[in-house]
Amino acid sequence: MKEIIVKPLITEKCTSLSDNLGQYTFVVNKDANKLEIKSEIESFYGVNVESVNTMNYFGKVRRRYTKAGILSGRSASYKKAIIQLSEGETLDFFSSI
Q1: In what order do the strands lie in the sheet with 78-85?
Q2: Could you tell me the pTM of the whole model?
Q3: Which of 11, 19, 29, 51 is spaced 20 to 30 Å from 79 by Cα?
């Protein structure tokens, strides 16, 4: 069985979305579809999900100029899901810390 939810994203923009609109952001498996993401969130957190929006982010090429020469690499690519919860429901990521 594949792991669907990799981790929640905690950034300023994601926090603003969750505070104002009730939307929460997660990094998910690249092969997961919207129905799998919805069922995983509902079973893991015990909430009702209204909608799921997904986005694929591709890794960028990065180059550094050093004394030893040019070092090049690539940042990781990932899939992001924005979850819209039902009215009045919230998620608390920091309750188990």
Answers
A1: 5-8, 23-28, 78-85, 49-57
A2: 0.84
A3: 19
> CATH classification of 5-85, choosing from 3.90.226.10, 1.10.8.100, 1.10.3210.10, 3.30.70.330?
3.30.70.330
- SS3 label, residue 64: strand
Listed by start position, the domains of the chain span: 5-85
Name the residue with tokens 């799998």.
36
Q: Which amino acid is located at 81 in the chain?
A: A
| Residue bearing tokens 């919805």 | 38
The torsion angles phi and psi of 44, rounded to 5 degrees, stand at -75, -45
3 state SS of 50: strand
